[in-house]
Design goal:
The two termini are 32 Å apart. This protein is α/β, with parallel strands linked by helices. The chain has 20 helices and twelve strands. A hairpin with a 2-residue loop joins strand 9 and strand 10. Helix 1 crosses helix 2, helix 9 packs across helix 10 and helix 10 packs across helix 11. The protein has a seven-stranded mixed sheet with strand order 6-11-10-9-8-12-7, sandwiched between helices. A five-stranded parallel sheet has the order 2-3-4-1-5, with helices on both faces.
Length: 579
């Protein structure tokens, strides 16, 4: 968008882990050196930890480009798995064929035996095997112990499997547990990647701009760079987000140089919690206003004294009345009868649609989606027992449907029925808690416990708790407990644009494209999406960047769901209004 304006060939501050943009600070060089040392060592574990956005994944990608010859690598980026699922994934990544004999699912032994045979065979052929696990702080101690057992296979010279764990700082805390001491003793190299200092922040910005094609002076003032470092705290991903929005702001106002004021405004858009708070101006009270205030103050003193006397009399009278038989009950009933009915919260927590946007589809009234005769069941403390969860996906869809104003027959195919009602099913196995907050819609999750698994509806997220529902039961549980039982599989519904009769995969053609273009244009006119050049693809990319979605310009279900949320389409939400 702003690349041509600043003489660049491409966007310099993408958050994608592109090794070409890797800025090798002293810390990053040491981190890469530790990974390379570990791979050339005698096996065991290598640990790389760092703050969120510090560049761990980018270093890993750079490391993969320098892997020695005859070295096979398996990369796992979603380690929230059980032991069986993890072993299955490892075998699949190394192309190890697993054969299961007998009745029931494959056992751990069914995976371990062929994998050990594979390690011995590849060692005999002079090959090395490296297992890289990203986001390793999500591994449970039980799974980590199984990984340690995988490294038991060794020769007199070296272990046959090298494991690299990459994760956030809490990974070090997990490995410090007494029950994982044996694993900690097998860590042959470890490094913690910290944040950049102010000088390195300047070099980092200069490096990325030059890689993107900058040939002139850096379009950031010294004060702007200093402020960027303060707000981003030296974290590369935060620097990327802030610099990208600052360049966009300078481009939108036709400024060839990013100044501190532009950075401040960009910070307010990208990091709301870090936005500078404007100091309130002292009020200037005129003489007539001051006299009026003093008059009110004199009157207020009399009112306060009168209110205190009335309160004392009322308390004495209440004590006398409450002592009579049956008086308390009748008094409470009278108060309950006089109390106004509770206000009904709107079903959608989204901002109102922009005036220039096309009218929203005509959905069923989500505020009345749940039958009025059905009272909300009492909230129980989680986690739920497996026996109380829903047994299959069709049953879960039937329980989710009333929230969307649908009724699904037991014999029908849920998604086909939903499509006829202008709704479409969406499924993924890579959802995260942050993703749930961003999508902000109820859906189906699968919970796994030691005694088995089952499905439930997640119907609300508030602070650090989630509300789940299955049948007539509801639970409120901490998000940490949900993360331990949930592996990322999620299913939900979303409202398709008017006139869209078939299943929507890429909404760049047909009625969906017209509706999408009008909606994004309305959001741009309202200042909720940065301006872009003409063309649907450019508008979609501008919206995707503003939402943190992969800006490929392809309008898939995630893009449509976020457009629905941003433009006020009437859909059920997980968050309470105003949260």
């Amino acid at each position: 968008m702003y690349a041509d304006f600043f003489g660049l060939k491409q966007d310099p501050f993408s958050i994608a882990p592109d090794p070409r943009y890797l800025f090798m600070s002293e810390r990053h060089r040491e981190a890469l050196a530790h990974l390379l040392y570990g791979i050339r060592g005698g096996g065991g574990f290598v640990l790389l930890s760092g703050e969120i956005g510090a560049g761990k994944t980018t270093i890993c990608r750079c490391f993969l480009e320098q892997i020695p010859e005859r070295c096979r690598v398996a990369y796992i980026f979603n380690p929230k798995l059980t032991v069986g699922d993890l072993l299955k994934t490892i075998c699949r990544e190394f192309h190890v064929e697993v054969r299961h004999e007998g009745i029931g699912p494959a056992t751990i032994k069914d995976y371990l035996d062929p994998f050990n045979e594979y390690l011995l065979r590849s060692h005999a052929e002079g090959e090395r095997n490296v297992l890289i696990i990203d986001e390793a702080q999500n591994l449970t101690p039980h799974v980590l112990e199984q990984l340690r057992l995988l490294t038991n296979l060794e020769t007199s010279e070296r272990k046959l499997l090298q494991i690299i764990l990459i994760g956030q700082p809490e990974l070090r805390t997990v490995l410090a547990r007494p029950e994982l001491e044996q694993l900690a003793q097998r860590v042959i190299a470890r490094f913690h990647l910290g944040a950049l200092n102010e000088s390195e922040t300047r070099q980092y910005i200069q490096h990325r701009m030059q890689v993107a094609g900058l040939r002139g002076p850096l379009p950031f003032s010294n004060q702007a760079i200093q402020r960027i470092h303060e707000i981003a705290r030296g974290v590369p991903r935060r620097i990327n987000l802030l610099c990208d929005r600052a360049l966009l702001g300078a481009y939108a106002t036709n400024q060839a140089r990013v100044e501190r004021a532009v950075v401040e405004k960009a910070a307010g858009e990208v990091f709301e919690a870090d936005a500078p708070v404007a100091k309130s101006r002292p009020r200037q009270t005129t003489a007539p206003a001051l006299a009026w205030t003093l008059s009110l103050g004199t009157l207020g003193v009399g009112l306060v004294v009168g209110a205190l006397v009335a309160g004392v009399l009322f308390w004495l009278w209440n004590q006398d009345v409450s002592a009579r038989p049956g008086a308390a009950t009748s008094q409470n009933d009278a108060l309950a009868a006089a109390a106004p009915p509770p206000a009904t919260a709107p079903a959608s927590a989204t901002a109102p649609a922009a005036e220039s946007a096309a009218p929203a589809p005509a959905p069923a009234d989500t505020a009345a989606a749940v039958p009025a005769s059905t009272a909300a069941p009492e909230l129980l403390p989680g986690p739920p027992e497996v026996s109380a969860l829903l047994g299959n996906e069709d049953q879960a869809w039937r329980e989710l449907a009333p929230i969307w104003g649908l009724t699904l027959d037991p014999g029908g195919e849920p998604c086909a029925v939903a499509q006829r009602e202008q709704l479409q099913c969406y499924r993924t196995d890579r959802m995260t808690l942050n993703g749930l907050r961003q999508l902000d819609r109820p859906g189906i999750v699968t919970l796994r416990q030691a005694r088995g698994s089952g499905r439930a509806l997640v119907t609300a997220l508030s602070g650090d708790t989630a509300t789940l529902q299955a049948g007539d039961l509801r639970w409120r549980m901490p998000l940490t407990d949900l993360a331990d039982m949930w592996r990322g599989d999620f299913a939900t519904l979303w409202r398709t644009p008017p006139g869209q009769t078939s299943r929507l995969v890429d909404g760049r053609t047909g009625p969906a494209a017209d509706w999408l273009g009008e909606r994004i244009a309305g959001l741009q006119a309202a200042g909720k999406v940065p301006p872009s050049t003409s063309g649907l693809t450019a508008r979609v990319q501008a919206f995707q960047r503003s939402q943190g979605i992969d800006a490929a310009g392809i309008a898939g279900p995630i893009t449509f769901m976020q457009v629905n949320l941003a433009s006020g389409v009437d859909e059920p939400r997980l968050s309470a209004p105003g949260s």
